[in-house]
Amino acid sequence: MMWFFYALLSVFLWGGADLFYKLGSKVEIDYSHLWIVVNVGIVMGIHAFYQIVTTPVTYLPINIVKYLPVSLLYIGSMTIGYFGLRYIELSISSPLGNSSGAVAFLLLYIFMDEPLTALQIAAITTISLGIIALSALEKGKSEVPFNSQDKKYKYSAIAIIFPILYCIIDGVGTFADGIVLSGVMDEFQANISYELSFLFVGLISLIYLIAVKKQKLKLFEQRERAVAAVFETAGQFFYVKAMSGNAVVTAPLVASYSVVSVILSRLFLKEKLKISQYITIVFISVSIVILGME
């Protein structure tokens, strides 16, 4: 039953990571999203080297290149998600982002001839309608025009697009990941390759911020982002262990971590949504779980 314990750890760690991502995504701090990339890259890099040194399995560096397209899809989607958190509530962003499973299911159905059950079709339809509904509700909230010069409101009218982009790109990444893992390499090689790629992107971002944008590295200012990076990496570690123990139950269980994100955002960030938004989020979250169970 250790797999169940690992799955629960992933749920709470990733839910906690979302909370600290939001705390570290401040509109008034320029390039806060890139500072998150730096933190996640460094922590993942440390974990990758630790795994290489302590695991008896030999890591093949060529797999960084083979896995790079998938890594860039994941890293790109996460960066967009970090940017979007500056302008949208976590309780909306997290469920929308986690809807990427619907995109992956559709791509598998179209290109890999994977059959879809009636329940899966209903879940995907519900997620799609939910995204449209949240987009309309979020747009309706905005009282400030898109051309506002105030950073707080500059992207408010279209902020919903960022988690939707995350959903699409991450879904494509998951689809590509499935292809790679089905014959090119195993999960250990893929995970190390992903973490090393994130380290490289994080270091490039750090150089860009300091050398080009003349930003100063303020360690105390990085505390929330560093905690989020640790939670993110630890969640990934336990997720892989849980999947190896019982993939059938782990997938839907861990996919529900967006529910934890919504609860934490209400408790600690005091985010307030309309009743209609909460209802829509519930439908999206249930549909995510259904996709994982089928």
Explain what you see:
It contains twelve helices and no strands. Helices cover 77% and strands 0% of the residues. With 294 residues, the protein is an all-alpha fold. It has one domain.
- Radius of gyration equals 19 Å
Number of strands: 0
SSE ordering: HHHHHHHHHHHH
Largest sheet: none
Structure classification: mainly alpha
**Overall 3D geometry?**
globular
The tally of domains stands at 1
Task: Label this structure with key terms.
294 residues; mainly alpha; 12 helices
Could you outline the blueprint of secondary structure elements for this entry?
Layout: H1 2-23, H2 32-54, H3 62-84, H4 90-97, H5 100-111, H6 118-141, H7 151-154, H8 161-181, H9 187-212, H10 223-255, H11 257-268, H12 275-293
Helix pairs in contact: 1-10, 1-11, 2-3, 2-9, 2-10, 3-8, 3-9, 4-8, 4-11, 4-12, 5-6, 5-8, 6-12, 10-12
Question: Nutshell version of this structure?
Answer:
The protein is an all-alpha fold and 294 residues long. It starts with a helix and ends with a helix.
